[in-house]
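queue> holo job accepted (flavin mononucleotide)
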Amino acid sequence: MDNWKSLYIYFISGTGNARISSEWIAEEARKRGLKTVVQQIDRLENIVMPSADEKPLIGFAFPTHGFNAAPIMLRFVASFPPGLCKEVFLLNTRAGMKLYKLFMPGLSGVALLLPAFILRLKKYKCIGFRSVDLPSNWIPLHPGLRIKVIESIFIRCEKIVRNFANKILSGEKVYSGLFSLPVDLIISPVAFGYYVAGRYFLSKTFVANYKCNNCGLCIKECPTSSIKLVGGRPYWKLSCESCMRCLNHCPKRAIEAAHGMAVVFWIIFTTVNTQIILLLINVLNIQPKVWWWRITADILSIGGMILIVTLLYRIMHYIIGLKPVNYLVRFTSLTALPFWRRYTYLKNNKKYICYNKEVTTF
Ligand SMILES: Cc1cc2nc3c(=O)[nH]c(=O)nc-3n(C[C@H](O)[C@H](O)[C@H](O)COP(=O)(O)O)c2cc1C
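queue> job finished
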């Protein structure tokens, strides 16, 4: 253990879980008289780095996306300057759930391993790995959790995170995030698939419904500047990381994950893709089972998926201006169902939203 004089935490957070975790750790550090700097890395802008004479301990907190660290955090870690300190720690927030009285954990995959590996190459020593199962924010997959469930998950996780902070700050090494290593390694191919292909498909499932009043909040809040106005309506670029901030923050509940539209896109993509691959096999007289063709076909399919889905999304963006199309997209989106709650931990004031009308202070 070095004699740390300061704590720098860099975090990215879609809906506030990694943010509150960073704040809990910083509070514990302040109790020990350390100077603390908690930095959001949105858009990788205005980031303050510590100087060596501040003797910093550096931490990274981020959500898990597709069994990996959020891509913006991976980019940040990859460009992180070497030699700022000796020791660092990592904390990933995951999809916490509760089934009756049982707290259910999320899955990390390579979310801790990959940034730790990159930091190791830069000669940083990782003294803490922790996963924390705060309320899941993956709203396209399930409605936001109920207030009572959120509350109990928060109470449990606050203790876990503060405990983690205190152990690290007293020089103990914490590797509990590595307990699930065998499972994490088994699912790592999915992490790869999500990183190279899945996330681009997800970013093309967001639409603004007719309730959108162009307030611009989603554009302002987006941590990767991935939303722009096209024809007076929000349009999600491929750089969107599906962090869920826009969908969960929208005061009008005007942002949907368009399930029906995504299914139609998928059917069109697979049909077109199969025809193109078959055509290539016939025209070029390829043996479909040879290894190099299998790899080439996979690469072509990923490229084709991104291209075709982006094109379809662009077309849809214009025709969704027509009320019947807008209604059809909305009413085939599960997120439009009245009980499909949103989830956000609000900044600055200790409040969280479970459903637009329910706001609780804790
Ligand atoms: C696109 C996406 C992918 C996700 N993938 C995973 C995952 O692989 N494993 C997991 O445990 N949680 C996953 N989650 C859930 C979030 O990691 C989890 O809710 C996290 O606590 C959110 O933190 P934040 O509020 O700081 O963004 C995913 C969420 C989203 C939106």
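queue> DSSP finds eleven helices and 14 strands in the chain.
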